[in-house]
Amino acid sequence: MLPDNLREHAVALAVADFDADAVTAGNYDRKELTLEIVPAKIVSICGFLKYDQKFVRLSAVTAVDRYPVEPRFEVVYHLHSIERNERIRLKCRVSGLTPIIESVASVWRAANWYEREVFDLFGIHFLNHPDLRRIMMPDDWEGHPLRKDYPITGSRV
């Protein structure tokens, strides 16, 4: 459900009209809209934002580890409408027990390497990703170095 403080923002209203259950929270700060999206609805919301709202550029996909809070991870998508020079940030909270979310590579091909980086460094799995494998760490590396519980001392051999 769309928070009351976003009822005057056109894109937030459009997303709420498209799928009223997709938005769980959000804010508008420093001329940038942030919407928290239900993880199961991320692909449909991204498709709507790209094709109907003209957010044609995916500028980044990243993650935040909120350990020890649960849900542990936030997957963050930064979108840009070149036509309107407008930006939006989408956040999805993902459990630390089973860090899985649907890939948006079917919406933006640019998501491919961003999602691989998040997988490699945080261990978040992207369902239906075309080539989900390590991109920065060696293939035989154990663990995910940007997790807050990753050991920073001792042997890693």
Question: Which features characterize this protein?
Answer:
157 residues; alpha/beta; Beta Polymerase, domain 2; 5-stranded mixed sheet; two-stranded parallel sheet; 20% helix
Walkthrough of the structure:
There is one protein chain. Helices cover 20% and strands 29% of the residues. It is an alpha/beta fold. It has a domain at 4-99: 2-Layer Sandwich (Beta Polymerase, domain 2), CATH 3.30.460.80. The strands form 2 sheets. Strands 1-2-5-4-3 form a 5-stranded mixed sheet. A two-stranded parallel ribbon has the order 6-7. α3 (111-122) links the parallel β6 (100-102) and β7 (125-127). The chain is globular, with a radius of gyration of 16 Å. The chain starts with 9 loop residues before the first helix and ends in a 30-residue tail after the last strand.
* Strand element count: 7
Task: Report the sheet-strand fraction.
Answer: 25-35%
- CATH homology superfamily name of one domain: NADH:ubiquinone oxidoreductase Nqo5 subunit
Largest sheet: spatial strand order: 1-2-5-4-3
Helix content: 10-25%
Number of helices: 3
Structural class: alpha/beta
Most strands sheet: 5 strands, mixed
CATH topology of one domain: Beta Polymerase, domain 2
| Nearest-integer average pLDDT | 95
Spell out the helices and strands N to C.
HEEHEEEEHE
What would CATH call the class of one domain?
Answer: Alpha Beta
Roughly how many Å apart are the termini? 48 Å
Q: Would you identify the regions where 5 or more consecutive residues have pLDDT less than 50?
A: none
